[in-house]
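User: I'm putting together notes for a lab meeting next week and I want to include a structural view of one of the chains we've been expressing. I don't have a solved structure, so I'd like a prediction I can at least talk through. The sequence is below, exactly as it appears in our construct file.
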Amino acid sequence: MLKKIASVGSWTMVSRITGFGRDIVMAAVMGAGPITDAFVVAFRLPNHFRAIFGEGAFNAAFIPTYAKTREAQGEAQGRLFASKIWTLSLIVQLVLLAAALAAMPFVIGLLAPGFVGDPLRYDLAVTLTRITFPYLLFVTLVTMLSALLNAHDRFAAAAGAPVLLNLSLIGALLAAFLFPTAGHAAAWGVALAGVLELLLVWVEARRVGIAPAFVMPRPDLALKNFFKTFGPAVVGSAGVQIAMFADTIIASLLPVGAVSSLYYADRLYQLPVGVIGIAAGTVLLPEMSRRIAAGEDDIAHRSQNRAVGLTLALALPCAVAFIIIPDLIMYALFGRGAFTLDDAQSAGAVLAAYSLGLPAVVLIRSALASFYSRSDTLTPLYASLAAVAINVVFKIILTGTYGVVGLALATVIGAWVNLLLLVGLAWRRGWTAPDATLLKTVAAALVGCVLLGAFVIAARGPIAEFAPGAIPLLAALAVGGGVVYGAGLFGALRVTGIRLRRR
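Assistant: Thanks for the context. Below is the predicted structure for the 503-residue chain, given as C-alpha coordinates.
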Protein backbone atom coordinates (compact mmCIF):
# COMPACT_ATOMS: atom_id res chain seq x y z
CA MET A 1 0.00 0.00 0.00
CA LEU A 2 2.85 2.41 0.80
CA LYS A 3 4.22 1.86 -2.70
CA LYS A 4 0.85 2.86 -4.19
CA ILE A 5 0.68 5.93 -1.96
CA ALA A 6 4.18 6.84 -3.09
CA SER A 7 3.12 6.49 -6.74
CA VAL A 8 0.07 8.73 -6.32
CA GLY A 9 2.02 11.12 -4.12
CA SER A 10 4.87 11.35 -6.63
CA TRP A 11 2.55 12.32 -9.46
CA THR A 12 0.72 14.70 -7.18
CA MET A 13 4.08 16.23 -6.26
CA VAL A 14 4.82 16.76 -9.95
CA SER A 15 1.39 18.38 -10.24
CA ARG A 16 2.07 20.66 -7.28
CA ILE A 17 5.53 21.61 -8.54
CA THR A 18 4.15 22.54 -11.95
CA GLY A 19 1.33 24.25 -10.05
CA PHE A 20 3.90 26.40 -8.28
CA GLY A 21 5.40 27.20 -11.65
CA ARG A 22 1.93 28.19 -12.80
CA ASP A 23 1.35 30.40 -9.77
CA ILE A 24 4.78 32.00 -10.07
CA VAL A 25 3.99 32.94 -13.67
CA MET A 26 0.51 34.05 -12.66
CA ALA A 27 1.83 36.20 -9.81
CA ALA A 28 4.42 37.79 -12.07
CA VAL A 29 1.97 38.47 -14.92
CA MET A 30 -1.21 39.28 -12.94
CA GLY A 31 -0.11 40.20 -9.40
CA ALA A 32 -2.85 40.41 -6.78
CA GLY A 33 -5.15 43.04 -8.27
CA PRO A 34 -8.63 43.20 -9.83
CA ILE A 35 -7.84 40.99 -12.85
CA THR A 36 -6.52 38.25 -10.57
CA ASP A 37 -9.55 38.58 -8.29
CA ALA A 38 -11.86 38.12 -11.30
CA PHE A 39 -9.93 35.13 -12.62
CA VAL A 40 -9.80 33.45 -9.22
CA VAL A 41 -13.60 33.62 -9.01
CA ALA A 42 -13.87 32.29 -12.58
CA PHE A 43 -11.48 29.46 -11.75
CA ARG A 44 -13.10 28.58 -8.46
CA LEU A 45 -16.67 28.27 -9.69
CA PRO A 46 -16.23 25.16 -11.91
CA ASN A 47 -13.87 23.74 -9.30
CA HIS A 48 -16.50 24.16 -6.58
CA PHE A 49 -18.96 22.13 -8.63
CA ARG A 50 -16.30 19.57 -9.51
CA ALA A 51 -15.57 19.09 -5.82
CA ILE A 52 -19.29 18.72 -5.06
CA PHE A 53 -20.09 16.12 -7.71
CA GLY A 54 -16.70 14.52 -8.20
CA GLU A 55 -13.58 13.54 -6.28
CA GLY A 56 -14.43 12.17 -2.83
CA ALA A 57 -18.20 11.95 -3.28
CA PHE A 58 -18.00 10.14 -6.60
CA ASN A 59 -15.27 7.75 -5.45
CA ALA A 60 -17.18 6.97 -2.27
CA ALA A 61 -20.21 5.84 -4.27
CA PHE A 62 -18.57 4.42 -7.39
CA ILE A 63 -15.62 2.34 -6.15
CA PRO A 64 -17.46 0.16 -3.57
CA THR A 65 -20.47 -0.33 -5.89
CA TYR A 66 -18.27 -1.17 -8.87
CA ALA A 67 -16.19 -3.59 -6.78
CA LYS A 68 -19.29 -5.37 -5.46
CA THR A 69 -20.84 -5.60 -8.94
CA ARG A 70 -17.68 -7.12 -10.42
CA GLU A 71 -17.35 -9.53 -7.52
CA ALA A 72 -20.98 -10.71 -7.56
CA GLN A 73 -21.91 -10.49 -11.25
CA GLY A 74 -18.67 -10.57 -13.18
CA GLU A 75 -16.62 -8.22 -15.37
CA ALA A 76 -19.32 -7.71 -18.01
CA GLN A 77 -21.85 -6.36 -15.51
CA GLY A 78 -19.18 -4.23 -13.89
CA ARG A 79 -18.36 -2.69 -17.28
CA LEU A 80 -22.06 -2.12 -17.98
CA PHE A 81 -22.46 -0.31 -14.66
CA ALA A 82 -19.46 1.91 -15.45
CA SER A 83 -20.89 2.71 -18.89
CA LYS A 84 -24.23 3.75 -17.41
CA ILE A 85 -22.50 6.11 -14.98
CA TRP A 86 -20.38 7.50 -17.84
CA THR A 87 -23.47 8.25 -19.95
CA LEU A 88 -25.39 9.82 -17.06
CA SER A 89 -22.41 12.01 -16.13
CA LEU A 90 -22.22 13.42 -19.64
CA ILE A 91 -25.97 14.14 -19.83
CA VAL A 92 -26.05 15.89 -16.45
CA GLN A 93 -23.00 18.01 -17.24
CA LEU A 94 -24.36 19.16 -20.60
CA VAL A 95 -27.57 20.33 -18.95
CA LEU A 96 -25.68 22.08 -16.15
CA LEU A 97 -23.33 23.78 -18.62
CA ALA A 98 -26.20 25.19 -20.69
CA ALA A 99 -27.97 26.51 -17.58
CA ALA A 100 -24.79 28.02 -16.11
CA LEU A 101 -23.78 29.87 -19.26
CA ALA A 102 -27.20 31.50 -19.51
CA ALA A 103 -27.37 32.46 -15.81
CA MET A 104 -23.74 33.51 -15.32
CA PRO A 105 -24.35 37.21 -14.42
CA PHE A 106 -26.76 36.09 -11.68
CA VAL A 107 -24.34 33.38 -10.47
CA ILE A 108 -21.44 35.83 -10.19
CA GLY A 109 -23.68 38.26 -8.32
CA LEU A 110 -24.36 35.52 -5.75
CA LEU A 111 -20.81 34.19 -5.54
CA ALA A 112 -19.01 37.53 -5.44
CA PRO A 113 -21.50 40.21 -4.36
CA GLY A 114 -18.64 42.60 -3.65
CA PHE A 115 -17.93 42.67 -7.39
CA VAL A 116 -21.39 44.02 -8.30
CA GLY A 117 -20.46 47.60 -7.43
CA ASP A 118 -17.15 47.26 -9.29
CA PRO A 119 -17.91 47.07 -13.03
CA LEU A 120 -14.36 46.07 -13.96
CA ARG A 121 -14.22 43.02 -11.72
CA TYR A 122 -17.89 42.04 -12.21
CA ASP A 123 -17.95 42.17 -16.01
CA LEU A 124 -14.59 40.47 -16.25
CA ALA A 125 -15.61 37.73 -13.82
CA VAL A 126 -18.77 37.00 -15.86
CA THR A 127 -16.80 36.80 -19.10
CA LEU A 128 -13.99 34.68 -17.70
CA THR A 129 -16.33 32.26 -15.94
CA ARG A 130 -18.20 31.62 -19.17
CA ILE A 131 -14.85 30.61 -20.65
CA THR A 132 -13.75 28.41 -17.74
CA PHE A 133 -17.04 26.71 -16.94
CA PRO A 134 -16.84 24.06 -19.73
CA TYR A 135 -13.83 22.74 -17.79
CA LEU A 136 -16.36 21.26 -15.36
CA LEU A 137 -17.85 19.02 -18.05
CA PHE A 138 -14.48 17.58 -19.02
CA VAL A 139 -13.09 17.22 -15.51
CA THR A 140 -16.25 15.43 -14.31
CA LEU A 141 -15.68 12.79 -16.97
CA VAL A 142 -12.02 12.72 -15.93
CA THR A 143 -13.13 12.03 -12.35
CA MET A 144 -15.31 9.13 -13.46
CA LEU A 145 -12.51 7.56 -15.52
CA SER A 146 -10.03 8.16 -12.70
CA ALA A 147 -12.27 6.31 -10.23
CA LEU A 148 -12.55 3.44 -12.70
CA LEU A 149 -8.77 3.30 -13.10
CA ASN A 150 -8.26 3.49 -9.32
CA ALA A 151 -10.64 0.57 -8.84
CA HIS A 152 -8.24 -1.45 -11.01
CA ASP A 153 -5.21 -0.20 -9.02
CA ARG A 154 -4.18 2.09 -11.89
CA PHE A 155 -3.32 5.39 -10.22
CA ALA A 156 -0.65 7.11 -12.33
CA ALA A 157 -2.69 8.64 -15.17
CA ALA A 158 -5.40 9.97 -12.85
CA ALA A 159 -2.83 11.44 -10.46
CA GLY A 160 -0.86 12.98 -13.33
CA ALA A 161 -3.80 14.57 -15.15
CA PRO A 162 -3.71 17.85 -13.14
CA VAL A 163 -0.18 18.44 -14.46
CA LEU A 164 -1.79 19.23 -17.82
CA LEU A 165 -3.88 21.98 -16.22
CA ASN A 166 -0.76 23.64 -14.88
CA LEU A 167 1.15 23.36 -18.15
CA SER A 168 -1.82 24.68 -20.11
CA LEU A 169 -2.15 27.69 -17.81
CA ILE A 170 1.58 28.44 -17.97
CA GLY A 171 1.51 28.34 -21.75
CA ALA A 172 -1.57 30.55 -21.88
CA LEU A 173 -0.12 33.12 -19.49
CA LEU A 174 3.13 33.28 -21.44
CA ALA A 175 1.01 34.07 -24.50
CA ALA A 176 -1.10 36.65 -22.61
CA PHE A 177 -0.08 39.39 -25.04
CA LEU A 178 -2.34 37.71 -27.62
CA PHE A 179 -5.47 38.16 -25.44
CA PRO A 180 -7.46 41.19 -24.23
CA THR A 181 -6.12 40.64 -20.68
CA ALA A 182 -3.99 38.08 -18.85
CA GLY A 183 -7.23 36.91 -17.23
CA HIS A 184 -8.65 35.97 -20.62
CA ALA A 185 -5.47 34.03 -21.42
CA ALA A 186 -5.62 32.11 -18.14
CA ALA A 187 -9.32 31.32 -18.61
CA TRP A 188 -8.74 29.83 -22.06
CA GLY A 189 -5.86 27.84 -20.59
CA VAL A 190 -8.29 26.29 -18.09
CA ALA A 191 -10.75 25.35 -20.83
CA LEU A 192 -8.03 23.72 -22.94
CA ALA A 193 -6.75 21.79 -19.91
CA GLY A 194 -10.11 20.05 -19.50
CA VAL A 195 -9.82 18.59 -23.01
CA LEU A 196 -6.22 17.48 -22.45
CA GLU A 197 -6.98 15.80 -19.11
CA LEU A 198 -9.89 13.87 -20.57
CA LEU A 199 -7.78 12.64 -23.48
CA LEU A 200 -5.07 11.43 -21.08
CA VAL A 201 -7.28 9.29 -18.84
CA TRP A 202 -9.42 8.07 -21.76
CA VAL A 203 -6.35 6.80 -23.60
CA GLU A 204 -5.16 5.03 -20.42
CA ALA A 205 -8.60 3.45 -19.87
CA ARG A 206 -8.65 2.26 -23.49
CA ARG A 207 -5.15 0.85 -23.13
CA VAL A 208 -6.14 -1.14 -20.04
CA GLY A 209 -9.36 -2.27 -21.72
CA ILE A 210 -11.84 -0.72 -19.28
CA ALA A 211 -13.02 2.37 -21.19
CA PRO A 212 -16.80 2.81 -20.78
CA ALA A 213 -19.23 3.09 -23.68
CA PHE A 214 -22.38 5.14 -24.21
CA VAL A 215 -25.39 3.03 -23.24
CA MET A 216 -28.99 3.57 -22.26
CA PRO A 217 -28.82 4.09 -18.46
CA ARG A 218 -31.72 1.82 -17.52
CA PRO A 219 -32.09 1.51 -13.73
CA ASP A 220 -30.90 -1.65 -12.00
CA LEU A 221 -29.75 -2.67 -8.51
CA ALA A 222 -26.18 -1.45 -8.98
CA LEU A 223 -27.36 1.95 -10.22
CA LYS A 224 -29.79 2.26 -7.30
CA ASN A 225 -27.03 1.38 -4.83
CA PHE A 226 -24.76 3.97 -6.45
CA PHE A 227 -27.26 6.79 -6.06
CA LYS A 228 -28.17 5.63 -2.55
CA THR A 229 -24.61 6.33 -1.46
CA PHE A 230 -23.86 9.12 -3.95
CA GLY A 231 -26.68 11.39 -2.76
CA PRO A 232 -25.49 11.79 0.85
CA ALA A 233 -21.87 12.02 -0.32
CA VAL A 234 -22.75 14.88 -2.68
CA VAL A 235 -24.63 16.73 0.05
CA GLY A 236 -21.64 16.27 2.35
CA SER A 237 -19.26 17.59 -0.31
CA ALA A 238 -21.66 20.44 -1.00
CA GLY A 239 -21.44 21.39 2.66
CA VAL A 240 -17.69 21.83 2.40
CA GLN A 241 -18.10 23.83 -0.80
CA ILE A 242 -20.70 26.05 0.87
CA ALA A 243 -18.01 27.06 3.33
CA MET A 244 -15.66 27.79 0.43
CA PHE A 245 -18.37 29.77 -1.34
CA ALA A 246 -18.69 31.76 1.88
CA ASP A 247 -14.94 32.47 1.73
CA THR A 248 -15.27 33.87 -1.78
CA ILE A 249 -18.42 35.86 -0.97
CA ILE A 250 -16.98 37.45 2.16
CA ALA A 251 -13.53 38.02 0.60
CA SER A 252 -15.17 39.84 -2.32
CA LEU A 253 -16.53 42.35 0.21
CA LEU A 254 -13.06 42.98 1.66
CA PRO A 255 -10.47 45.34 0.10
CA VAL A 256 -9.08 44.51 -3.34
CA GLY A 257 -6.52 41.71 -3.10
CA ALA A 258 -8.26 39.69 -0.37
CA VAL A 259 -9.50 37.07 -2.85
CA SER A 260 -6.00 36.84 -4.31
CA SER A 261 -4.40 36.43 -0.86
CA LEU A 262 -6.74 33.53 -0.13
CA TYR A 263 -5.88 31.97 -3.47
CA TYR A 264 -2.09 32.12 -3.10
CA ALA A 265 -2.19 30.91 0.52
CA ASP A 266 -4.52 28.08 -0.41
CA ARG A 267 -2.21 27.00 -3.23
CA LEU A 268 0.66 26.42 -0.77
CA TYR A 269 -1.59 24.97 1.90
CA GLN A 270 -2.96 22.46 -0.61
CA LEU A 271 0.53 21.10 -1.37
CA PRO A 272 0.69 18.69 1.59
CA VAL A 273 -3.07 18.16 1.41
CA GLY A 274 -2.82 16.87 -2.15
CA VAL A 275 0.57 15.18 -2.11
CA ILE A 276 0.03 13.46 1.24
CA GLY A 277 -3.57 13.51 2.50
CA ILE A 278 -5.47 12.95 -0.74
CA ALA A 279 -2.86 10.50 -2.05
CA ALA A 280 -3.22 8.38 1.10
CA GLY A 281 -7.01 8.53 1.00
CA THR A 282 -7.12 7.66 -2.71
CA VAL A 283 -5.16 4.44 -2.12
CA LEU A 284 -6.71 3.62 1.25
CA LEU A 285 -10.37 3.57 0.12
CA PRO A 286 -10.11 0.71 -2.42
CA GLU A 287 -7.71 -1.14 -0.06
CA MET A 288 -10.11 -0.96 2.89
CA SER A 289 -13.12 -1.71 0.66
CA ARG A 290 -11.53 -4.96 -0.54
CA ARG A 291 -10.42 -6.02 2.96
CA ILE A 292 -13.78 -5.32 4.57
CA ALA A 293 -15.66 -7.06 1.75
CA ALA A 294 -13.47 -10.10 2.47
CA GLY A 295 -14.13 -9.91 6.22
CA GLU A 296 -10.57 -8.81 7.01
CA ASP A 297 -11.39 -5.82 9.20
CA ASP A 298 -8.19 -6.13 11.25
CA ILE A 299 -6.04 -5.84 8.15
CA ALA A 300 -8.14 -2.90 6.96
CA HIS A 301 -7.58 -1.07 10.25
CA ARG A 302 -3.88 -1.84 10.14
CA SER A 303 -3.69 -0.34 6.65
CA GLN A 304 -5.52 2.73 7.88
CA ASN A 305 -3.12 3.17 10.80
CA ARG A 306 -0.12 2.96 8.49
CA ALA A 307 -1.67 5.55 6.16
CA VAL A 308 -2.45 7.91 9.05
CA GLY A 309 1.04 7.57 10.52
CA LEU A 310 2.71 8.24 7.18
CA THR A 311 0.39 11.18 6.50
CA LEU A 312 1.19 12.90 9.79
CA ALA A 313 4.93 12.21 9.57
CA LEU A 314 5.04 13.97 6.20
CA ALA A 315 2.53 16.76 6.83
CA LEU A 316 3.48 18.01 10.30
CA PRO A 317 6.83 19.54 9.26
CA CYS A 318 5.01 21.45 6.51
CA ALA A 319 2.67 22.91 9.11
CA VAL A 320 5.63 23.97 11.26
CA ALA A 321 7.31 25.75 8.34
CA PHE A 322 4.09 27.47 7.23
CA ILE A 323 3.49 28.77 10.73
CA ILE A 324 7.05 29.98 11.49
CA ILE A 325 8.17 31.49 8.16
CA PRO A 326 5.04 32.06 6.01
CA ASP A 327 6.11 35.51 4.76
CA LEU A 328 9.52 34.21 3.65
CA ILE A 329 7.94 31.26 1.84
CA MET A 330 5.46 33.50 0.03
CA TYR A 331 8.03 36.08 -1.03
CA ALA A 332 10.61 33.51 -2.11
CA LEU A 333 8.10 31.69 -4.31
CA PHE A 334 6.01 34.54 -5.69
CA GLY A 335 7.91 37.78 -4.99
CA ARG A 336 8.61 39.00 -8.49
CA GLY A 337 6.92 41.05 -11.19
CA ALA A 338 3.58 42.41 -10.04
CA PHE A 339 3.63 40.45 -6.73
CA THR A 340 4.97 42.78 -4.02
CA LEU A 341 6.33 42.32 -0.50
CA ASP A 342 3.03 43.59 0.90
CA ASP A 343 1.21 40.93 -1.14
CA ALA A 344 3.53 38.28 0.29
CA GLN A 345 2.95 39.41 3.86
CA SER A 346 -0.84 39.45 3.41
CA ALA A 347 -0.91 36.00 1.82
CA GLY A 348 1.62 34.72 4.39
CA ALA A 349 -0.64 35.69 7.28
CA VAL A 350 -3.47 33.68 5.69
CA LEU A 351 -1.12 30.72 5.13
CA ALA A 352 -0.04 30.68 8.79
CA ALA A 353 -3.68 30.66 9.89
CA TYR A 354 -4.59 27.86 7.47
CA SER A 355 -1.69 25.74 8.71
CA LEU A 356 -3.15 25.44 12.20
CA GLY A 357 -5.69 23.08 10.66
CA LEU A 358 -3.33 21.22 8.33
CA PRO A 359 -3.10 18.03 10.46
CA ALA A 360 -6.89 17.76 10.51
CA VAL A 361 -7.33 18.43 6.80
CA VAL A 362 -4.77 15.84 5.65
CA LEU A 363 -6.36 13.17 7.86
CA ILE A 364 -9.98 13.69 6.82
CA ARG A 365 -9.73 11.55 3.67
CA SER A 366 -8.23 8.65 5.68
CA ALA A 367 -10.92 9.05 8.34
CA LEU A 368 -13.65 9.01 5.69
CA ALA A 369 -12.38 5.64 4.46
CA SER A 370 -13.77 4.05 7.65
CA PHE A 371 -17.27 4.93 6.46
CA TYR A 372 -17.03 4.97 2.67
CA SER A 373 -15.46 1.49 2.58
CA ARG A 374 -18.63 0.26 4.32
CA SER A 375 -20.90 2.24 1.92
CA ASP A 376 -21.91 4.57 4.74
CA THR A 377 -22.09 8.08 3.32
CA LEU A 378 -24.76 9.37 5.71
CA THR A 379 -22.54 9.62 8.79
CA PRO A 380 -19.86 11.71 7.01
CA LEU A 381 -22.70 13.88 5.71
CA TYR A 382 -23.88 14.70 9.22
CA ALA A 383 -20.32 15.35 10.39
CA SER A 384 -19.63 17.59 7.39
CA LEU A 385 -22.78 19.66 7.78
CA ALA A 386 -22.14 20.17 11.50
CA ALA A 387 -18.58 21.29 10.75
CA VAL A 388 -19.73 23.61 7.96
CA ALA A 389 -22.33 25.27 10.18
CA ILE A 390 -19.65 25.98 12.79
CA ASN A 391 -17.25 27.09 10.07
CA VAL A 392 -19.66 29.64 8.58
CA VAL A 393 -20.62 31.03 12.00
CA PHE A 394 -16.96 31.63 12.84
CA LYS A 395 -16.34 33.23 9.44
CA ILE A 396 -18.94 35.83 10.29
CA ILE A 397 -17.54 36.30 13.81
CA LEU A 398 -13.82 36.40 12.99
CA THR A 399 -13.77 38.33 9.71
CA GLY A 400 -14.83 41.56 11.37
CA THR A 401 -11.78 41.46 13.65
CA TYR A 402 -9.15 39.65 11.58
CA GLY A 403 -10.24 40.31 7.99
CA VAL A 404 -9.18 37.70 5.45
CA VAL A 405 -7.14 35.87 8.11
CA GLY A 406 -10.39 35.30 10.01
CA LEU A 407 -11.74 33.33 7.06
CA ALA A 408 -8.77 30.98 7.29
CA LEU A 409 -9.12 30.59 11.06
CA ALA A 410 -12.78 29.66 10.65
CA THR A 411 -11.78 27.02 8.10
CA VAL A 412 -9.34 25.61 10.66
CA ILE A 413 -12.05 25.33 13.31
CA GLY A 414 -14.39 23.60 10.88
CA ALA A 415 -11.73 21.11 9.79
CA TRP A 416 -10.94 20.05 13.36
CA VAL A 417 -14.64 19.66 14.20
CA ASN A 418 -15.12 17.50 11.10
CA LEU A 419 -12.15 15.25 11.87
CA LEU A 420 -12.98 14.80 15.54
CA LEU A 421 -16.59 13.88 14.74
CA LEU A 422 -15.49 11.32 12.14
CA VAL A 423 -12.87 9.72 14.38
CA GLY A 424 -15.18 9.69 17.40
CA LEU A 425 -18.05 8.06 15.52
CA ALA A 426 -15.79 5.50 13.84
CA TRP A 427 -14.18 4.62 17.18
CA ARG A 428 -17.59 4.20 18.81
CA ARG A 429 -18.68 1.72 16.10
CA GLY A 430 -15.41 -0.20 16.07
CA TRP A 431 -14.66 0.99 12.54
CA THR A 432 -11.20 2.31 13.41
CA ALA A 433 -8.61 0.92 15.79
CA PRO A 434 -5.50 3.09 16.42
CA ASP A 435 -2.67 0.90 17.65
CA ALA A 436 0.59 1.39 19.55
CA THR A 437 2.60 1.70 16.34
CA LEU A 438 0.50 4.65 15.20
CA LEU A 439 0.85 6.41 18.55
CA LYS A 440 4.62 5.91 18.53
CA THR A 441 4.86 7.22 14.98
CA VAL A 442 2.93 10.37 15.89
CA ALA A 443 5.13 10.90 18.98
CA ALA A 444 8.26 10.53 16.84
CA ALA A 445 6.93 13.06 14.32
CA LEU A 446 6.25 15.54 17.13
CA VAL A 447 9.82 15.15 18.38
CA GLY A 448 11.07 15.89 14.88
CA CYS A 449 8.80 18.95 14.64
CA VAL A 450 10.11 20.43 17.90
CA LEU A 451 13.67 20.08 16.62
CA LEU A 452 12.68 21.51 13.24
CA GLY A 453 11.01 24.54 14.78
CA ALA A 454 13.98 25.23 17.05
CA PHE A 455 16.37 24.97 14.09
CA VAL A 456 14.41 27.36 11.86
CA ILE A 457 14.02 29.98 14.59
CA ALA A 458 17.68 29.78 15.63
CA ALA A 459 19.23 29.52 12.17
CA ARG A 460 17.21 32.06 10.18
CA GLY A 461 19.24 35.08 11.30
CA PRO A 462 22.74 33.59 10.93
CA ILE A 463 21.93 31.97 7.58
CA ALA A 464 20.49 35.26 6.26
CA GLU A 465 23.89 36.88 6.76
CA PHE A 466 25.58 34.36 4.47
CA ALA A 467 22.68 33.71 2.09
CA PRO A 468 21.16 37.11 1.23
CA GLY A 469 17.89 37.01 -0.64
CA ALA A 470 14.67 35.18 0.03
CA ILE A 471 15.26 32.22 -2.28
CA PRO A 472 18.75 31.23 -0.99
CA LEU A 473 17.59 31.69 2.61
CA LEU A 474 14.50 29.54 2.13
CA ALA A 475 16.52 26.87 0.30
CA ALA A 476 19.11 26.70 3.09
CA LEU A 477 16.45 26.51 5.80
CA ALA A 478 14.57 23.83 3.85
CA VAL A 479 17.64 21.63 3.43
CA GLY A 480 18.89 22.10 6.98
CA GLY A 481 15.39 21.74 8.45
CA GLY A 482 14.79 18.58 6.43
CA VAL A 483 17.95 17.01 7.80
CA VAL A 484 17.09 18.01 11.37
CA TYR A 485 13.51 16.75 11.12
CA GLY A 486 14.54 13.49 9.45
CA ALA A 487 17.19 12.82 12.10
CA GLY A 488 14.76 13.56 14.91
CA LEU A 489 11.97 11.44 13.37
CA PHE A 490 14.06 8.37 12.58
CA GLY A 491 15.96 8.64 15.86
CA ALA A 492 12.71 8.68 17.82
CA LEU A 493 11.30 5.79 15.77
CA ARG A 494 14.41 3.76 16.48
CA VAL A 495 14.13 4.45 20.21
CA THR A 496 10.52 3.23 20.19
CA GLY A 497 11.53 0.08 18.32
CA ILE A 498 9.57 0.76 15.14
CA ARG A 499 11.10 -0.60 11.95
CA LEU A 500 10.08 0.90 8.64
CA ARG A 501 9.05 -1.63 6.01
CA ARG A 502 7.80 -1.23 2.46
CA ARG A 503 4.92 -3.41 1.36
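A couple of points you could mention at the meeting. Residues 101 and 130 are 6 Å apart (CA to CA). The chain has two domains: 2-434, 438-503.

User: Perfect, that's what I needed.
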